[in-house]
Design a protein that fits this description.
- The protein has one domain.
- By secondary structure, it is α+β, with helices and mostly antiparallel strands.
- It contains four helices and four strands, in the order αααβββαβ.
- Strands 1-2-3-4 form a four-stranded antiparallel sheet.
- Helix content is 40%, strand content 18%.
């Protein structure tokens, strides 16, 4: 009775442990890619002052080249899965190539940083972590924990 756990049980425990560790490492790699893409898109939106909504723009081409360069692949997702409501104005929201953005307007409210006549905008960028495991996708299809979001700095649009 000294060897109550046979070799098969020990082997099964080792395999389960290895699967958990490998799954954790794969998730971390995909999370890092999504985080890097989000930061790059935020930088591009700030550099091009938010003019990244047209597919022919240099900004979109720059973002697409970077996404292809680091191997980021996320399934396309729509604005409803991100939680962006109120996208009535053209160019205020969009989803493309594995990321979504939404434009928010900040108007002057009496503090010194923004004059009352000027309006500034910032963009919220959301990328998605690619978790392509069929069991997890069936159990949690729209879990927002698998998304990474960030905001740009305030941008004064050119009139």
């Amino acid at each position: 009775m000294r060897d109550a756990y046979g070799g098969i049980v020990n082997l099964a425990m080792i395999v389960v442990f290895l699967l958990l560790v490998c799954g954790y490492l794969a998730f971390n790699v995909n999370y890092t890619k999504a985080f890097r893409v989000k930061n790059y898109i935020i930088t591009a939106f700030e550099q091009y002052e938010g003019n990244c909504d047209n597919d022919s723009d240099a900004c979109v081409q720059k973002i697409s080249d970077y996404i292809a360069q680091i191997g980021y692949s996320a399934p396309d997702f729509d604005l409803n899965s991100v939680g962006y409501e109120g996208c009535d104005e053209p160019g205020s929201c969009g989803c493309q190539r594995g990321y979504c953005y939404k434009k928010y307007t900040v108007s002057g409210n009496g503090d010194d940083s923004i004059s009352e006549n000027d309006t500034q905008v910032y963009y919220r960028i959301t990328t998605q972590i690619n978790v392509d495991i069929p069991i997890i996708n069936k159990i949690m299809p729209n879990l927002k924990i698998f998304q990474v979001s960030g905001n740009t700095k305030l941008i004064t649009p050119f009139n």
